[in-house]
Amino acid sequence: MGKILICFLFLFFISIHKIDSILIFRHYNIEISNHLAGNKQLMINCRSGKDKGTKVEFLPVNDVWTIKFTVYPRTLIWCNLWMGPNYVHHVKFNAFLGKESFIHDICGGRKPNVCFWQAQEDGIYVRNNAAGTFKLMYKWDTINKLESSFQ
User: Fold this and answer.
1) Which residues, including other chains, have CB under 8 Å from residue 147's CB and lie 6 or more apart?
2) Other beta carbons less than 10 A from residue 37's beta carbon
């Protein structure tokens, strides 16, 4: 009886450790900060799958917008950002992909459970959590450039 209990406890503690290493069903956050110059607001709208998406948010300078979610198989969250005051500059990007490679290569790991994006004058940056550095990922498009791509 004692050996069975010890084996059970051993397997129980190993399984708890393994659960922490599984990506699916983890709670995760996307944070987007506004570091635009000249007191420009950032307009944000994000969507996941077939959801209606978040309501359109207008983020003041030096503020952070957060969305919290649980990771499921094939989780995809993409965002549209527009630079104020005239909202002519736009970018659409995948803010989160439920893949270990995206979290490791783009967000820089799972500790903390956040993928942090920052809007600046020249484009959208992502923070590598492990290194604490920012990398330019997307440049702003203008509405005229976007319209010509649909023609």
Assistant:
1) none
2) 8
